[in-house]
Write a structure and sequence with these properties.
With about 775 residues, this protein is an alpha/beta fold. It has a six-stranded mixed beta sheet with strand order 9-14-13-12-10-11, sandwiched between helices. α1 crosses α9, α11 crosses α16 and α13 runs parallel beside α16. The longest helix has 19 residues. The chain is globular and about 90 Å long.
Length: about 775
């Protein structure tokens, strides 16, 4: 991939001075970059799901986490991920961009695409999924939506920022394969395909090296391998040593430090500690970034239809609601369904976003209780709080439960709103458990005891445990945090004007202890070991056959769908596979189905592989009785695993199975296809085992021929004995060669290794300790 190099523009009086160049590499304030010469300042705002518009103080005071101006609060990523709808994510991002331009904001600090490694992560509401493909598709759509509207994206938090505990210092200790396949995969996909103008480096370290000073991640991988040509900015306050950070590839320290670290850069260049060319490269990238970001600068001009954006927020929220359970088709409720008791303070005082740096002041707010009363039409809707939220006076809590129980007993149906209070999950700290508050569970038990027709509606930014109580309620709705239009969306789903189509982008476990990361989260003494490897989320649950409450990809509808005729054909250019499946709406109303395509690698794989991995998905809207053919293309390269030994992506040859599914546990159809594997670049030596030699496409035939030439009765008997062959499979060839009865000797091993090197194009030279 070619890279363009841009020189910084000359200042009005000539070239930029060294001090001006250094000043460009740090902020001028909390959310604005420095201007110098004809390089303009860039205004930034938090905003993964809407603009947080802080006031610039410049007084060094504490950053205000609340927005200074109203903006549309769209569903946070935890909900938007459950839409499985990249087009919708792009529309949301375009609306955020329009509001950004109207406020003179050039760059929105998002989307956040970190993987949900543990259900305890306090910032889960800002991230899309436990799966890198869902994350890349939704996150990439947001990058495109922002930048096509002239506002820059800041892809964050690069990389492996999967917890809040000790987040400013912790080292995420990750083997290369899970790092590549899970934690870098979405970043790589978006950087290569969607070209974000900036990437935000995270607070944490990876394998002991802080991200802000991590040359391998910021330069070797991000720029050299992936071709990133934008700016790397730090998370706010993440830089501890400015000069090593610049050398590593970090262009912009945020926020500003009042010139203190600028002076350190100047001194380092003057002393020769920092190469002047390194600073020049950062300045060139910053100049290009500033021109890109300000090219469509509205400087506070432009009309924004906040009413239209609120309608979009409602539409988005509707797509995000997940119907987890609906026994006896309790839902949807008929508008004239008698007496409906709405119980739970969260119906009256909704949580619609998470806490921390992403908080938005909404332009308006749909309250679920009000929207339910409006949607009910002929039904009689009554309300009882049932519990108090932590920021409300909790006196008389027992009385609240008694009142709710009486109301439930005298009603035809109960809509019970439960969830996590804001104090339980936020940026800055992780959760201690995944349970609902005890008071809410006690309320549920009292309500279910007097009325079996209970619909539980959840509000939460991270997964909550639903076991065992979900077995006692006939209907369960996962409402996540739905933004300012969430109240109307929930009312639409509950009363049936909206057919739910959300799908879980993360597994809901029966117990926290079942989580694959449980024994190595959040780490200790400054390190967290990613001991589960590639078995993150559903990959781990499915591989271990762990029973779960609700699996990845699960979501019900008010209609039903059947699948038939799954086929797979190679694409015209040979770089992809086209999977086609017929989907039929076999129910009584229109609905949207999300078709998920998973793959299983060949049997006898050389590496540990998950039971299945998501490879693609598509959604389709069908009228009752309608049938369509859905096509999902899978790049052949996406079937590769990352080989640490070969330091590259490798597609294994053999029979690969593809599954059309409604979730990772609801496999509808399977088809097999045989693929040729990628050639190995490994050059064999005597340190490689007999099995590795025999499996090698070049070394295997050469060794078999050598065995045949030097065969003795004793060696032939050893190789013919299946137990002995299995015993010898793990023995290095040079050890076998040392035994007197061996068919090959030490000199044969040297000759064979040389022949493999001669016949293997692009291989690495053999070394005595290559393993």
């Amino acid at each position: 991939m070619t890279h363009q190099h841009h020189s910084p523009a000359p200042a009005a009086g000539g070239e930029l001075s060294l001090a001006q160049k250094a000043s460009l590499t740090s902020g001028a304030g909390d959310f604005v970059t420095q201007a110098a010469g004809d390089v303009p300042a860039v205004s930034m705002s938090d905003g993964p799901h809407g603009l947080r518009l802080p006031e610039e103080r410049g007084d060094g005071g504490q950053v205000d986490l609340h927005s200074a101006a109203p903006a549309t609060c769209f569903p946070p990523a935890v909900a938007l991920g459950s839409s499985w709808d990249p087009q919708l994510a792009g529309r949301v991002a375009a609306a955020i961009a329009a509001e950004a331009r109207a406020h003179g904001v050039h760059v929105v600090l998002g989307p956040g695409i970190n993987i949900k490694r543990s259900p305890l992560c306090g910032r889960s509401f800002e991230y899309f999924s436990e799966d890198p493909l869902v994350t890349a598709e939704l996150g990439g759509a947001m990058v495109r939506g922002l930048q096509e509207a002239g506002v820059g994206a800041a892809l964050k938090h690069y990389a492996a920022n999967n917890q809040e505990t000790d987040r400013m210092r912790v080292s995420a200790d990750i083997d290369e394969r899970p790092l590549r396949e899970i934690y870098l995969r979405a970043f790589e996909r978006i950087v290569r395909r969607d070209r974000p103008w900036s990437v935000m480096s995270a607070y944490d370290a990876v394998n002991g090296v802080p991200l802000s000073e991590n040359h391998r991640l910021l330069t070797d991988i991000l720029r050299t391998e992936w071709g990133f040509d934008g700016v790397v900015m730090s998370d706010w306050g993440a830089v501890r040593d400015r000069v090593p950070a610049l050398r590593a590839g970090l262009d912009l320290q945020m926020p500003g430090t009042g010139g203190r670290t600028d002076a350190e850069v100047v001194a380092a260049v003057e002393s020769g500690e920092l190469d002047a060319g390194t600073l020049e490269g950062a300045v060139a990238r910053l100049a290009l970034f500033a021109r890109r970001a300000t090219a469509a600068d509205g400087s506070g001009t432009g009309e924004v239809s906040y009413e239209a954006h609120h309608e979009l927020a409602r539409t988005a929220a509707q797509r995000c609601v997940v119907l987890l359970k609906n026994d006896g088709e309790l839902l949807p409720l008929a508008p004239d369904s008698g007496t409906v008791a709405v119980i739970g303070e969260l119906a009256r005082t909704p949580r619609f976003q998470g806490a921390g740096s992403s908080q938005v002041t909404p332009t308006r707010l749909d309250v679920p209780l009000d929207c339910l009363r409006e949607a009910a039409d002929g039904a009689d809707v009554t309300f009882a709080a049932g519990y108090a939220l932590p920021d409300v006076d909790a006196d008389g809590a027992d009385g609240l439960v008694d009142e709710a129980e009486r109301l439930a007993a005298g009603s035809d149906t109960v809509l019970l709103f439960l969830g996590l209070p804001a104090q339980d999950e936020s940026e800055g700290f992780d959760r201690d458990h995944i349970d609902l508050p005890e008071a809410q569970v006690r309320l549920l038990e009292r309500v279910v005891a007097v009325n079996p027709r209970v619909v539980v509606v959840l509000s939460n930014g991270g997964v909550v445990r639903t076991a065992p109580w979900h077995e006692r309620v006939p209907a369960l709705v996962e409402g996540w945090l739905l933004g300012q239009g969430g109240g109307a969306a929930l009312a639409g789903v509950l009363f049936g004007s909206v057919n739910p189509s959300g799908r879980l982008a993360e597994t809901i476990p029966l117990r926290l202890e079942d989580s694959p990361s449980h024994l190595s989260f959040p780490g200790e003494e400054g390190h967290v070991r990613y001991g589960e490897g590639v078995f993150v989320g559903y990959r781990g649950y499915d591989e271990r056959r762990t029973e779960v409450a609700f699996p990845f990809g699960h979501g019900l509808s008010y209609t039903t769908f059947t699948y038939s005729d799954l086929t797979v054909l190679p694409g015209a250019d040979g770089t992809r596979l086209d999977l086609r499946v017929r989907v039929t709406n076999t129910g009584r109303r229109a609905g949207r189905e999300v078709v998920q395509i998973y793959s299983r690698g060949p049997a006898g794989s050389r590496v540990a592989r998950p039971e299945r991995e998501l490879r693609g998905f598509a959604s389709v809207e069908l009228a009752p009785g309608e049938e369509v053919e859905v096509c999902v293309s899978v790049d052949r390269a996406d079937l590769a695993h990352y080989s640490e030994r070969e330091a590259k992506w490798c597609v294994e040859g053999g029979v690969h199975h593809f599954e059309a599914a409604a979730s990772s546990r609801d496999i509808r159809l399977t088809v097999a296809v045989t693929l040729d594997g990628d050639p190995s670049r490994i050059l064999l030596t005597g340190r490689h085992t007999l099995a590795e030699w025999l499996e090698h496409p070049v070394g295997g035939p050469l060794l078999a021929e050598a065995f045949a030439r030097g065969r003795t009765d004793e060696s032939a008997g050893a190789m013919a004995d299946p137990v002995m062959r299995r015993f010898l499979a793990g023995v290095p060839l040079d050890v076998i060669a040392d035994f007197p009865q061996s068919s090959v000797g030490p000199e044969d091993v040297i000759t064979l290794s040389a022949e493999v090197a001669a016949q293997t194009a692009g291989g690495e030279p053999p070394t005595g300790d290559d393993e």
